[in-house]
Specification:
mainly alpha, 76% helix
Length: 103
């Protein structure tokens, strides 16, 4: 995911990885890449919510099931938001320093 965009296929790969592995994937990302990942996770969660609200017997036989993927996406989103909250403080501090330097 070097481009920072959240594309179909990448979420399939990461859908069942351990949250620690997901955090490792986020480690080298810029804040903008994290924002793109967040938007992709939210998009995927919305799709899964539609799938889960209209149950289908075929979906229940998928492995991993949409319910499992939904749960993991929620965990990933939680971890991502915590990291973004920490990093937002860094981004804010850098922006403040840049404003002082430009003044």
């Amino acid at each position: 995911m070097a481009s920072g965009s959240y594309v179909r296929g990448w979420e399939d790969k990461m859908s069942m990885m351990a949250p620690e592995v997901f955090l490792d994937e986020l480690d080298g990302m810029t804040y903008q890449e994290m924002m793109a990942t967040r938007e992709g996770l939210v998009r995927e969660l919305r799709i899964l919510e539609r799938e889960l609200s209209a149950p289908d017997d075929a979906a229940a036989r998928l492995d991993p099931s949409p319910a499992q993927v939904y749960r993991m996406d929620l965990i990933y989103l939680s971890e991502l938001l915590q990291l973004m909250e920490c990093r937002s403080q860094e981004v804010t501090q850098v922006a403040q320093v840049q404003q002082v330097v430009q003044a």
